[in-house]
Amino acid sequence: MIGTTARSLLSVSLLAVLAGCASSSPTSGLTGAAPAATAQAEPTPVVQAFCPPVVMREETAIHRAYARGGQDNPEKLMYQASLADATRACTANETTITINVVAQGRIVAGPAVSAGQVNLPVLVEVVDGENVIYSQSVSFPVELPTAGTQFVFSKPDVQIPNAQGGASRFTRVRLGFDTGSKR
């Protein structure tokens, strides 16, 4: 009984399909069918871009803060901070690449520490070859306990131009601490 019903439904379905195929109108032979869409939706354009890697500035990846008048005196060291692993994520439109830069850091207390919040001067630069196309120093707050701690630095709004084909393959995001000296 089930086999006979299944064959009957298959036969009716096949006849309906064939009736539609033999007709000159795409909807003739089908009752109650809606007319076919006359225009297809435009595909959404895809914007692709090269997402520049993050590199650490070796000469400024470590920052030391000393008590007043104690520059380079180990007994007057308040803290030492360093940046280590970093990553990035990019979004792009036709004209702009927005880079979310994230880095892991560590801050260690020195002999002259006073626990509390410190502001680390993190420098974020985007360079294309030797040309600086973005540069911003960020005063990044970190809570410093008397022993030291790890922190995660994040700068989600670094924006650079998106040329046709994306940023140059020579473009890099450089991270370090702002030493105040000319680079």
From TrEMBL:
The keyword Signal applies. Residues 1-24 form the signal peptide. It comes from the Bacteria. Keywords: Signal. This is PilZ domain-containing protein.
